[in-house]
Amino acid sequence: MTSPISGIIRTISVTQGESVSNTALPAVEIDDLSQVWVISQVDPQKAGLLAAGGQQLTYISANQAPISSNITLIEASIEPGTRHVLVRSLVTNPDMILRPDMLVKTRLMTRNRVSGVLVPEAAIQTLNGENCVFVQKSDHEFVPRNVTVATTLEGKALVTEGLKAGQKVVSQGSFVLKSQYLLAPTPDHSEARD
C-alpha cells in the first residue's frame, strides 16, 4: 500500500492480512506536519493587545532557536474550562520537530510597544493585594514600592509604573523583606508612583 501524501503515520486501523476494501475506517491515517497549528492560551485581558498578523515565536526547547510565525486567528470567546482565549498560529515545520499534542512555549508580540523597567520576576511581591518591589533607599534600608506589572516572561517582569530606570530593587531575599515589613510596616509604602 502506498500513501498519496508524505507525512507521519498517526494510526493504523488494519492488521497484516486483513482486507482493506470492506473496512469503514481508513486503513492508515497520515498527518502532513509540514505546517502545524500552535494554539496558545492567553489571559483575556492580554488577548486584546494582540492582532491577527502579529508576530509569534514558538520555543520548543531552551537550547533551540525559536520558530517565527504570525498569529492567524484569535478566538472570539473564552474557553470555559481554562478561562483563557485561544490564539492560533499556523507554523511552518520543515524539520518535522513539532508534533500533534506537543507542549511548547510561545511569545506573542502585542500591537503596541510597551515601555518600562525590566526586573527579575523574583523581585515582585504582593502587599495588600498589590504588586510591589523593595527599592534600596540607603545601604541598609529598603522600602516597598507599589508597581504595575505589564507582563512576565522567562524570569523577568516588565514594570510600567512605580519604578524608574536605575533604581535598585531586591530580588534575592525580597520575600524576607516582605515578611519583616508585614511585622513592622513603615509609611514609605504609600509613596506616590512616579
Helices and strands in order:
Elements: E1 8-12, E2 28-31, E3 35-42, H1 44-47, E4 55-59, E5 67-78, E6 85-92, E7 105-108, E8 117-120, E9 125-127, E10 130-138, E11 141-146, E12 148-153, E13 156-161, H2 174-183
Antiparallel strand pairs: 1-2, 3-6, 4-5, 4-7, 5-6, 8-13, 9-10, 10-11, 12-13
The CATH homologous superfamily name of the largest domain equals Efflux pump adaptor protein, beta barrel domain
* Helix/strand structural class: mainly beta
> How large is the radius of gyration?
25 Å
Q: How many beta strands in the DSSP annotation?
A: 13
Weakly predicted, low-confidence segments: none
Distance between the termini: 71 Å
Helix and strand string, N-terminal first? EEEHEEEEEEEEEEH
Q: Please state roughly what percent of the residues sit in beta strands, choosing from under 5%, 5-15%, 15-25%, 25-35%, 35-45% or over 45%.
A: 35-45%
Overall average residue pLDDT? 86
Instruction: Identify the strand order in the major beta sheet.
Output: 3-6-5-4-7
Work out the helix count: 2
CATH fold call of the largest domain: Elongation Factor Tu (Ef-tu), domain 3
Multimerization state: single chain
Total tally of structural domains:
2
Outline type: elongated
**Largest beta-sheet details:** 5 strands, antiparallel
**CATH class descriptor name of the largest domain:** Mainly Beta
Domain CusB-like beta-barrel: 35-110
Family: Belongs to the membrane fusion protein (MFP) (TC 8.A.1) family.
Protein name: RND efflux pump membrane fusion protein barrel-sandwich domain-containing protein
GO molecular function, one term: transmembrane transporter activity
